[in-house]
Amino acid sequence: MAGREKPTAAMGELAAERHIAFSQMMLDELPAKYASQEINRVTLAYFAVSSLALLRSLHLVDKDEIARWVLSFQAKPNDSEKLDDGKFYGFCGSRTSQFSSDSNEDECKSVSHLASTYSALAILKIIGYDFGNVDSRPISDSMRNLQMPDGSFMPIHFGAETDLRFVYCAAAISSMLNDWSGIDCEKARDYIIKCQSYDGGFGLVPGSESHGGGTFCAVASLCLMGFIQSNNNSISNNNSNDDKKSMLLPMSNFIDIPLLVEWCLQRQGADGGFQGRTNKTSDTCYAFWVGGVLKMLGAYELLNKISLREFLLSCQSPYGGFTKFQRELIPDLYHSYYGLAALSLLEEKRLDTLCVELGLAAICGI
User: Fold this and answer.
1) Which of 81, 86, 275, 335 could lock onto 280 through a cystine, CB 3.0 to 4.6 A?
2) How many helices and strands, by DSSP H and E, does the chain display?
3) If DSSP codes are grouped into helix, strand and coil, which group holds residue 183?
């Protein structure tokens, strides 16, 4: 039925103005369907602010107001508490996870989360906030409480799942703070190595199925910690197989990079998009998660850029933003940001460049 078809508006082009309007709207007021994600409000704000940064539209927001709002979520120890009390003093994800202290002061009891802390610091970095004004010592010192004996990280101090997502958050936080005292990098590296699967990709935990998001977290963490050096000599399809191997192998003595690159390339489907796992449908966000891995490894030129761009542009919603799959109408914040991030990797002219390892627009000066 023609009335149910997805409207097209120059789908061969980036609808930048619509995406700007969508991001602004989501930053100002979230629709009712996001009520179930209230606990992740800071992370949702990260997607909106990051989208505006990639679209070179940060001048449309009040950076001072955003900074005050983000900083209000930081958890800090009371004078009577110590940083070795087992708690994590990072950033809370929302007001619903933020509680006043026993003394009824306007102060946050520590229910902070590694992912929320990453998102909060990323927002501050993007808007150009002076990190000299961030009380970073409690973050780094207490983050050590979250690292497990096997090198993995819990996201919160009172227990939760441990996997590569939170190893990445810890590495990214340390990088943004320029303080690596909160993580045992060697233990984290050993945990990451155990997560590489027989097919070259990385599962979220050792022995699990290779996954696009887990693979990004593994490779980006190794890059941030200095165990993989960025490869500036991008491989092209004109290189012989021997040339490709010789350019990749020196980058790491810890993981099988040629097999990893092969796994990533196999994730691009006939529609041009990327899937997160074998036999899954192409999904907008994996164009960043898997494409970002290829970018960090210097193998980005091996994918089909033209078909990937066509896939991403076909996922634009007529209302602004991006959808998860093709032929859908309603966008969401998560896929909207990673759709823009993936197009940035493709060097879309209307977008700012990206610091792949941190997932931040280059405008932040990293």
Assistant:
1) 275
2) 13, 2
3) coil
Task: Give helix 286-296 / helix 333-345 axis angle, nearest 10°.
Answer: 30
Distance from C-alpha of 155 to C-alpha of 310, rounded to nearest angstrom: 37
Type of residue found at 229: Q
Q: Choose among 360, 361, 351: nearest CA to 14.
A: 351
Write out the two tokens for 345. Answer: 């990797």
Confidence (pLDDT) at 3: 39
CA distance 291 to 279: 18
Quote the CA–CA distance of 123 and 129 in Å, as a whole number.
9
Helices (H), 3-40: 16-28
Please, what is the end-to-end C-alpha distance for the chain in angstroms? 49
- Other Cβ atoms within 10 Å of 198 Cβ, number: 8
Q: What are phi and psi of 202, to 5 degrees?
A: -120, 135
Is residue 224 within a helix (H) or strand (E), and if so which, with residue range? helix 212-224
- How many whole angstroms separate alpha carbon 298 and alpha carbon 115? 27
Q: How far apart are CA 259 and CA 293, in angstroms?
A: 13
**The pLDDT of residue 80 is above 80:** no
With cut-offs at 50, 70 and 90, classify the pLDDT of residue 85.
Answer: confident
The C-alpha atoms of residue 108 and residue 315 are separated, in whole angstroms, by: 40
- Which pTM was predicted? 0.90
Distance CA 98, CA 110 (A): 8
Q: Which position has the token pair 């097999």?
A: 259
* Secondary structure of residue 360 in the 3-state scheme: strand
Look-up of token digits 């943004």 = 176
